[in-house]
Input
Amino acid sequence: MLAKSIMLVLGFILLPNISDGHHSHVNYAVSEFTHLEGIVREVHLINPHSWIYLEVQDDQDEPVIWALESTSPDGLRRAGILPDFVRVGDRIEVRCHRQRDNHSACLLGFLTPLHGDTGRGHGIEREWD
Output
């Protein structure tokens, strides 16, 4: 009986630590922000992480698609971000943590819509992670 109780207590202590491992940001350089501005090409508000694909012009004025990882749709909703806050075709500015291997991917930190629609938050920066 005592052994079962100890195992149960250990399970409750260790379970949150196991689930936190999935949400590690080790792939990203979280100590610095990368600033990007471009046109939204795709929006995927899905579990466990939402994604925005952003077309950005590189130094040679060529389009590059950046994959921006964010929190779940529920996490966004809790932060006051509604599903139509950003739509395909919108211009946005972001501050994100670039992937350590220098691919065109980021952990999305903050997003500012520049689409001109004040009803959808034009010009208001919001946290997305």
Confidence is low (pLDDT under 50) at residues 5-21. Strands lie at 34-44, 51-57, 63-69, 91-98, 105-113, 126-127. The radius of gyration is 18 Å.
